[in-house]
Amino acid sequence: MNIRTTAYDDLMAFQRQTEALGQVAGRLDWDRETTMPRGAAAQRAEECGAMEAVLHARRTDTRLGDWLEEAAPGDDVGRANVRLIKRSFVRNSKIPARLAEELARVTSASQGVWAEARATNDVAAFLPSLKQVIDLRREEAACLAQGGDLYDALIADYEPGATAASLGDMFDRMRPRLVALRGAVLDADYQPEAMEGRFDAEGQMKVARELATAFGYDWDRGRLDFSVHPFSSGSGSDARITTRVVESDPFNCFYSTVHEVGHACYELGIDPSYALTPLGAGVSMGVHESQSRIYENQLGRSRAFTGWLMGRMRAQFTDFIAKDADAFYGTVNKVRAGYIRTEADEVQYNLHVMLRFDLERALVSGDLLVGDLEAAWNDRFKADFGFGVDKPSNGMLQDVHWSVGLFGYFPTYSLGNLYAGCLNQAMRAAVPGLDKALAAGDTSGATGWLRENVQTHGGLHTPVEVITRACGFAPHEGPLLDYLEEKFRGIYKL
Predict the structure, then answer these.
(1) Are 360 and 402 in contact (CB under 8 A)?
(2) Distances in Å between the alpha carbon of 142 and those of 410, 411, 424?
(3) Is residue 398 part of a domain?
């Protein structure tokens, strides 16, 4: 008997159960944000805490250390599994079980408090919960950092290898060209028309489902529901998505759906043999976001694809009027003043992320107190965007992330945009006739290339390795900024 082989087999059998339980915990979160009765929030918080206690005990089980010490897999897949399990074991062993359970319980309850506060624009009602979440996350970060930077310790949960310094440098390089492009676009003589009219919810959902199908979403392994904040949940054979409907703004529904389909297709596109192993999920949130953003923007908002979307809207909404495909393309991509990150155009989106990045770094470091967050948000927003926040739901209450403790998550959105810019450049060089296919509503050439070059690998490689292998060059911001300037200077006739 080979002890090392047996140790690896025992390790993976144990890990498979842990991964399965993690999927169950994720389903509890999905239910909480979609169909759970409002009155069940307190009980659900206890359920989430209990599940996290079980998961934490498994992730820190002393047998893992023994198996990891003895296991010596002979291929890249086995070595990657061991690397990721060891990273999780080391991380979770630094966190007391009491803290892990309390974080799960408090963030589950806080999400419900945030949803109520957002609906009523009551910041004061949310601040005590937010302070509790931040205090717990800072305590967790201190355990992980062990004297190092607290924010770096939190970033590592979402983008291994990234640091606050590297992300800050990325933003410093991006900001000047983004600000210059925004200024040129907003001052341009030509301005695309805004979308006008009312679009009934049933019709929007019909088009949304057509869009999801067009982008290859597998309805046998997924479903589409409503939530306050659209999201994707699950992996393997169960990757669900949500969207929302605003009758005056059908693009909110359509592009939220396409965005979440990008996330879900990443999970569904991973090599099936990796299911219920550490390799069976997206490698990082930055790479995950690259898939959702390239589906939504470089593909879904392209001149070719918006021409097809215009036809679907004409078929569904009898009162819908669009002058022509070029004008509709401009309307889809119109740059306008707005408060909401998820509704922001491609030019301004990263500026929204930069605001959150700076504020949450200050919250984690203790330089910004929770009680001062609303004023800090409003001051920074006015400085960055040139107009004031009108209500909290359009300001610091708009995002769900902080209520559930996702500090360090926001910068991965811009990192995903950067990755998407690189992937788009490589994909267009590799897929002939792409725009002709998109104009017919056929995304298979693009999504197939992404599945083969990014999605199928799951967690096998590091985030930077995934993008570098797919593109043939190390990721950098140049392709994204070049794409944005070419696209929007064309739309605005600059």
Answers:
(1) yes
(2) 20, 20, 38
(3) yes
Residue 240 DSSP one-character state: E
Q: What is the CATH number of the domain that holds 432?
A: 1.10.1370.30
Task: Quote the CA–CA distance of 488 and 462 in Å, as a whole number.
Answer: 33
Q: What is the average pLDDT across 143-156?
A: 95
Q: Running DSSP on this structure, what letter comes out for residue 229? A: S
Q: What share of the chain is helix, strand, coil (3-state, %, to 5)?
A: 70, 5, 30
Residue 292's nearest CA partner among 339, 365, 243 is 243
Average pLDDT of the chain is 95
The response to whether 259 counts as a known ligand-binding position is yes
Is 305 found in the same domain as 396?
Answer: yes
What's the pLDDT at 4?
Answer: 64
CA pair distance 8, 378, nearest whole angstrom: 53
Q: Which of 115, 148, 181 is the last residue of a domain?
A: 148
d(CA 127, CA 130): 5
Distance CA 471, CA 466 (A): 9
Cβ–Cβ under 8 Å, residues 278 and 81: yes
289 belongs to an annotated ligand binding site: yes
Q: 362 and 418 share a domain?
A: yes
Q: Which CA distances in Å does 225 have to 3, 30, 118?
A: 48, 10, 20
| Per-residue pLDDT tens digits for 323-350 | 899 999 999 999 998 999 988 999 999 9
Does the annotation flag 196 for ligand binding? no
333 plus 395 within the same structural domain: yes
Counting residues of the chain whose pLDDT is more than 90, the rounded percentage is 94
Contact 171, 219 (CB under 8 A): no
Is residue 155 assigned to a domain? no
Same domain, 135 and 178: no
Residue 76 is part of which domain span? 3-148
Task: Note whether residue 158 is domain-resident.
Answer: no
Q: Which residues are catalytic?
A: 260
The amino acid occupying position 227 is S
Is residue 120 located within the same domain as residue 235? no
- Total number of domains constituting the chain: 2
pLDDT (tens digit per residue) in 365-422: 999 999 999 999 999 999 999 999 999 999 999 999 999 999 999 999 999 999 999 9
